[in-house]
Design goal:
Blueprint lengths: L2 H18 L1 H7 L6 E2 L2 E6 L47 E6 H12 L13 E11 L9 H14 L19 E10 L2 E9 L6 H21 L4 E7 L3 E4 L1 H4 L10 H15 L5 E9 L6 H18 L3 E6 L7 H9 L6 E6 L5 H9 L4
Amino acid sequence: MSIKEDHSRFRDIVKGKIKENFKKYVSQGEMIGKREEEFVKIPLPQIDIPNFRYGAKQQGGVGQGEGQQGQDVGEPGSGQGEAGNNPGEHLLEVELSVDELAEILGEKLQLPRIEPKGNKNIETVKTKYSGLAPVGPEGLRQFKTTYKHALKRLISTGSYNPEDPKIIPIRRDHRYRTFKKIVQPQTKAVVIYMMDVSGSMGDEQKEIVRLESFWINTWLKKHYKGLETRFIIHDAAAKEVDENTFFRTSESGGTLISSAYKLCQQIIETDYPINEWNIYPFHFSDGDNWSGEDTRLCIKMLKDFFIPNTNMFCYGQVESKYGSGQFLKDLQKEFPNQEQIVLSQIENRDRILDSIKDFLGKGK
């Protein structure tokens, strides 16, 4: 069996282990702190590391250096403590690509493939290698195929000598990779995360949002290469921040959810033409809003702007002992059958997987 086959089997075992303990990986976030660009390092204590096993210990004697045959090398030392009877835990870190994680997520949650919307007139040109030809640039010469043609030529002419198997290709043996340009429609996507950072949204609530957003991004990246992300935080006022600030900011004071929706709309109108971009706003809060009047303004903005211009608008309510949770109730009452408004209640970490299914299960 080849090294490639062994490696493929090992990766299948790794994926199986991740699927078995998928809820733990999602809710505890062991992967997220180990991201390196498009790869994630995953700790897998369940897989034993292959190791050498030595034969029975030989008493006395020396291998090299000074000494006579059969001479003892010294008395055994005296250690402290008792011998254990349990094996040590081997912690093995394995790298998986974001695409592989997305595949596992999709299989585990049975997520449908997303059908991107957007302007099909935006096109990208890709090079596809499609065959072999007897002419071409030297940089595309296929050595193995060229060698085979030279071997066939020598055998067919009776020039091949098994005792002296010299095979020297001539010009007519050369084979080169051929390619063609393929024009494909390109679709682009942006995720705009909004989060309430008022005092009632504590570290645990923000960690739930951090974990969930990682997996949302992982799935969307499978369908949109070069996915863009933007981050908005708000209490009574909203501002755009980077990802690090988004998950670490704590504020106090009142909450005006409409401030985040207004800024989100402004970002979309300025940077993301709706006929060219697939747009995914996600808002996370504990459900407290300053007033019923502001909630009515939010509902109007959802109807007038977000529903017509985005793939879907997702609201996730993270449970907090300080939050009333009223905003979710208001949205459920206003949009009981609206497919583009996706609502999810996230009581704790164990609910993250269900919430991801709520948001991504329709394949929009």
